[in-house]
Every structure is written in structure tokens, then in C-alpha cells.
Specification:
Number of helices: 19
Structural class: alpha+beta
Oligomer: single chain
Shape: globular
Order of helices and strands: HEHHEHHHHEEHHEHEEHHHHHHHHH
Largest sheet: 5 strands, mixed
Distance between the termini: 69 Å
Helix content: 40-55%
Length: 344
């Protein structure tokens, strides 16, 4: 079955998503091949703005289409592997912070494994045996698990995480990749610095048991407790109804000036029309939620802070103070300065 066949099979199913930060470095890499990254993104139906918003969520099928199409069209068989060089613990947000502050590598990997579902559809499994340890990964979405470029991106990314935890000179004992060997496998051996087995039964890094016991020099138990609370709070947010998530995202995005329905949908990994339908089912609209957030924040800033009117306008996503003043007067019956004086 080809990638195209798999994409057609999954076309009508609920869409799994991936963080846009998996494409960190994509544009620069493709330019080295003389390619136009914007054109490639359009072919995969990925908005160009996703490259500048690492918190955006992209359909996994679109990421697969982008990487496989780019690798084929520009003779770039190790594209996924090259992209993985940019992967860092920081790409996992607060989960990465939690892992960094665990006492040793074993606990760090266990933390990532336990909370990785908050970031992606990748499942990480640590299997300890006598004399060796397998750090296995597979993608819950068949469309991604069948993509050599995605497999390389995931396994190369795990390799980079291990180097972050164990030091820049760390190497695995061996690497197993389920896809077939490329015409030239030397880039893989150079990258991983160890034997690489292709057509394997799964995707895994084989590591030394002693690696798991290595203490993390930067670990801080105080920060760890704080990160753990943040992760648990985030998990609760993900489980909330969609309209509640929209309210939270609006509050975060307002100061950027980019708090549009399209960009909020992108953060949630949804099409704009799908988000509109879900909000309608909840009895609200994006415009009403945006206006409610602005009203509540404007009231709070004016009454409880000494921020200037100009600063408040920016925090509420207005490019001009005059536009904020007109909006405020329409909703509150007077200008923001007058309202602040009355409240004081």
C-alpha cells in the first residue's frame, strides 16, 4: 500500500494532529535543495503561518504528505532524519521541563512516556531486559507509522533527546528501523554513530542499561514539582469541552494581535468551519467569545492595574489605541479613561 492509498483510506476519519514544531528547520532545509517551502506547504494544505506558530496543531496526514512529497520531488531521502537534528526537550513544553528535572535518565524517559500524549500521537515504550534496554516508539496513526520520513523524524528526535539527557557524545548501541533501507544508508550510520538495522520488527534505540541510571546534572526537585503541577493542569485543560479551550486560547493569543478564528482553529488542529460548528453546538460564536474575553480583561486591567490605556489596547489585540477606545465606548457607554476614573 502506498502513502497515497493510506491517505485516501484515512480521509474521512477524525484527524489526528501534530505540533507544528515538528517542522522546525523545514524551510531552511528545502531551500538548500532549491525548493520553495511555501509552495510545498500549499501542496500539503498546510498554512504558511504554521511555521511561525510552534503551538499550532497540524493534521498528521498533511505532515506525512508534506515530508514524503518533498523527499521524493527533491531527492531528499534523509529529510526526516535531517529535520530531527533540530528536536529538543523544549519542543515538548512543560513535559520537557518535567523530564529535565527528574533525578535520572530512567525517570525522565518515564515522565516523557507518561505525558507524551499531550503533545503527539507517538507512543514511547521503555523495555528493560537483561543486558540491554529498548527504547521503542510507534505512531498511533497508521498513516504516519507507514511513512519512512516520519519514522526517521521520530527516531532521530528521540536520539536527540537522549543526547540532551546523557550528553552530546552519547550513542545508542544499535538502532532498529521498520522501513526498508534507502539506496544510501551511510547518512543513517553517520547520524546515529552505531549499527542501523532496516526492515526491523519495530522502531527502537537499543541502549546500555547503565545509561538509565545516569543522574541529570540540571535536575531541580523544586522546579520538578512546579512542572508536574503544570502538566497535570494542562492535562485537565485538554480534557475540557472545546468552547472552554477556545476561551483559554483567546486569552493567551489576544496580545499577539493574531487572535482570529482561523489561528485559534489552527492551534486546536481543526478546520475553521469545524470549529464554528462545534461552537454553534455549544450555543456560542467565536465573535461572542472574543468580545467576552476582551470585556472581562478590559474591566480587570482598568480597575486592578496601573497599565496605560495604550498598553491595555495592545494586550487586548488592538493595533491602535483609538480603535480600542471606540470599541470600549460602544460596549461600556464611555471611554476607558473616564471609566477608570469612575471606578477609582
Amino acid at each position: 500500500m502506498t502513502i497515497a492509498d493510506i491517505l485516501l483510506t484515512f480521509a474521512d476519519m477524525p484527524r489526528a494532529t501534530a505540533s507544528a514544531n515538528v517542522l522546525t528547520g523545514f524551510a531552511a532545509l528545502m531551500r538548500t535543495k532549491g525548493a520553495d517551502p511555501a509552495q510545498l506547504l500549499r501542496r500539503a494544505r498546510i498554512p504558511l503561518s504554521a511555521l511561525s506558530d510552534p503551538q499550532a496543531r497540524l493534521p498528521v496526514a498533511s505532515v506525512v504528505r508534506l515530508l514524503e512529497d518533498s523527499a521524493l520531488r527533491f531527492d531528499f531521502p534523509d529529510l526526516g532524519l535531517r529535520l530531527s537534528q533540530a528536536r529538543r526537550l523544549s519542543h515538548f513544553g512543560v513535559v520537557g521541563k518535567l523530564a529535565r528535572d527528574e533525578p535520572d535518565v530512567r525517570h525522565a524517559l518515564q515522565a516523557i512516556s507518561a505525558w507524551l500524549h499531550l503533545h503527539s500521537e507517538v507512543i514511547l515504550d521503555l523495555q528493560e531486559g537483561e543486558g540491554s534496554v529498548a527504547l521503542s516508539a510507534f505512531h498511533a496513526e497508521t498513516v504516519a507509522e507507514s511513512s519512512p520520513q516520519v519514522v526517521d523524524l521520530v527516531m532521530g528526535g528521540i536520539f536527540q533527546i537522549m543526547r540532551h539527557l546523557c550528553g552530546p557524545q552519547w550513542h545508542a548501541q544499535a538502532v532498529c528501523l521498520a522501513h526498508s533501507a534507502p539506496a544510501d544508508s551511510r547518512p543513517y550510520r553517520r547520524y546515529f554513530g552505531c549499527p542501523v538495522e532496516f526492515d526491523a520488527g519495530g522502531n527502537a534505540l537499543i541502549i546500555a542499561p547503565a545509561d538509565l541510571d545516569q543522574a541529570l546534572a540540571e535536575a531541580d526537585p523544586i522546579f520538578r514539582s512546579d512542572s508536574e503541577r503544570q502538566v497535570e493542569a494542562w492535562a485537565g485543560l485538554v480534557a475540557r469541552p472545546l468552547d472552554v479551550q477556545v476561551r483559554e486560547i483567546i486569552r493567551v493569543m489576544l496580545p499577539s494581535g493574531r487572535c482570529t478564528m482561523a489561528n485559534v482553529a489552527l492551534r486546536l488542529g481543526l478546520q475553521e468551519r469545524t470549529l464554528r460548528r462545534h461552537l454553534a453546538d455549544a450555543g456560542v460564536t467565536f465573535a461572542s467569545e472574543l468580545a467576552a474575553a476582551r470585556r472581562a480583561l478590559a474591566h480587570s486591567y482598568l480597575e486592578r492595574s496601573d497599565k496605560t490605556i495604550e498598553a491595555i489596547a495592545g494586550l487586548l489585540g488592538f493595533s491602535e489605541t483609538s480603535a480600542f477606545s471606540r470599541w470600549f465606548r460602544k460596549g461600556f457607554g464611555c471611554g476607558p479613561r473616564e471609566w477608570r476614573q469612575r471606578a477609582g
